Amino acid sequence: MVEAVLIDLFSLPANLQNNIQGLLHDTLETIEKCSSIHAPSVYVMCCQRQGSERKREQEFLFPDLRGFQSLKRRLEVVCAQTTAAALYTIKQRLDEKDLSIIKVILPTLRKDLMKVYIDHLFTEVYQFEFEALQVVSDCENLQIAEPQHEGQTLPSQDMALIRSEIQVYLESLPSLKGELTILRSSLIPDNIFLHGFTTRTGGISYIPTLSSCNLFSSSKRRDPQVVVKENLRRLANAAGFNPETFHRVKIDHANAVCIMGNTEPDNYDGIVTNQKGVTLAAPGADCIPVLFADPVRRACGAAHSGWKGTLLGVSMATVNAMVSEYGCNVKDILVVLGPSVGPCCYKLPHESAKEFHSIDPKCVRLFDSASPYIDIRRATRILLERGGILPENIQDDSVKDQNQNITFCTACHPDKFYSHFRDGTNFGTQIGFISIKD
C-alpha cells in the first residue's frame, strides 16, 4: 500500500503557472477519492521564487482544504529554489515517519528527470511508482505535458547538471552534531604518514542512527551515496587528503588483501600500498579498522577485522602482503587498532566463542554461557604478535584503562561512534584511513 504521495508542481508550463491552486485541488480530490491510496502523507513540491516568504507562498499555494478532511493534517507544501533541495527536504520528512512506498504524481515530461534525482538521493530501501499529473478543467481532462517514450535516457549534459545541482545543495548544508573530529595515534609518525580514525560528528547525515558523518552507503540503508560522498569530501578537507585517490576495502569478512596497482579482487578486507598520496581506508561500526605503517620501507595498509576476519587472520594477511610486496621487515611495521566494540559489550554464540577460546582463553568471558563475551581486539593482538609484530609496535588502548585516545568501545560511546551492535540494521559507519605523504 502506498504510504506517501509526492505531487511535483515544481516546473509547470507557463500557461498553467497561474492555475496552480486549481491543479493542486483537482489532484488532491483525485487522491482522496482513490480507494487504492488510503490516508497517505501528501507532499507538494513547488518552486520558491527568489525573495518570496515561505509562509506567504505556502498560504497562496494551499487550495481550500475544507473538503479534504482526510488529507489536510497529512499534507505539506515544500517550496525550494531547486528540485534537489525540495526533494531532499521531502526525503527527510519520509525518513522521520519511516515511510518507504511513494507514489509520484508529476508532469509526463518530468518523469525521466525525476527518476535521475531519485536514483541519486534515495536507495533501494524506497519503492517508487509514477503517475501522470492530470487535472479536470471545464469537465475535460488536461494532461500537462506531451507523453514521451518510457525509459528515454536524458542527455549527458542534463545528467551532469543534475549531479552538480545535488552536489552544490549538499555542500551548502550545515554540519550536524558538532565539528568533524579525527582521532590520531602517536605511534604512527606524522612526518611520513597522514592517518586518522573518524567519529560520528561533522557530517550531513540526519537519520538518527546514521547522523552525522556516516561514511558508508548500501542498498539496505537510507543514506544515499551522494550524502556519503559529501561527508567524505568534508573529511578529506579536514584531514588533508585527496578524495579522488581514496580507496576503501570491499568487505567480505574474510582475509583477502588488495595490492594497489595490481588487479583488484572482487572483495577484500585488507589493502596495502607504497604509492604516495593514495589514501587507504577500512570501515568499522564494531568491527576493528586496523591501520599499518612501515616508516622504513614507507608502505602502509588498512584492514577491516570483524570477528570472522579476525579468526581468518586478516591483519596478519595484510602484514604479509606488505612484507612480500614491498620488502618490509615485520619488526618495523606499526599497527594501530581503531575504535571497535569491546569485550564489555560484544557477545557471540557459544560455538563461535570456542574458536576465540582456542586462541587464548582470556579472549572469552563467561565461556560456559550460551552467548559469551568476546574480545576481538585481544585475539587480533595475539595473532599479530605470533606473526612477528613487536608488542610495543601495536597500539591497543583497551590493554590499559587509562590514557585511552583511540581504541574506544563503539557500543559504549553513542555520542562518538556508530555501532551495529547497539543501533541495529540501519547503522552508520566510521573509518580508519592512512596514506603516505608526498
Topology diagram in text:
Layout: E1 4-8, H1 20-33, E2 41-47, H2 54-61, E3 75-80, H3 83-96, E4 101-106, H4 111-121, E5 127-132, E6 134-137, E7 140-143, H5 156-172, E8 182-183, E9 193-198, H6 225-239, E10 246-248, E11 257-259, E12 270-273, E13 279-284, E14 288-294, E15 299-305, H7 307-311, H8 314-326, E16 334-337, H9 350-359, E17 364-365, E18 373-374, H10 376-386, E19 394-395, H11 420-423, E20 430-436
Parallel strand pairs: 1-2, 1-4, 2-3, 4-5, 10-13, 11-12, 16-19
Antiparallel strand pairs: 6-7, 8-9, 9-20, 12-15, 13-20, 14-15, 14-16, 17-18
Task: Jot down its keywords.
single chain; 438 residues; alpha/beta; CNF1/YfiH-like putative cysteine hydrolases; 2 domains; 6-stranded mixed sheet; 5-stranded parallel sheet; 11 helices; elongated
Could you please describe the fold and organization of this structure?
- The protein is of the alpha/beta class and 438 residues long.
- Helix content is 28%, strand content 21%.
- The protein is elongated.
- Its EC number is 2.4.2.1, 2.4.2.28, 3.5.4.4.
- It catalyses: adenosine + H2O + H(+) = inosine + NH4(+); inosine + phosphate = alpha-D-ribose 1-phosphate + hypoxanthine; adenosine + phosphate = alpha-D-ribose 1-phosphate + adenine; guanosine + phosphate = alpha-D-ribose 1-phosphate + guanine.
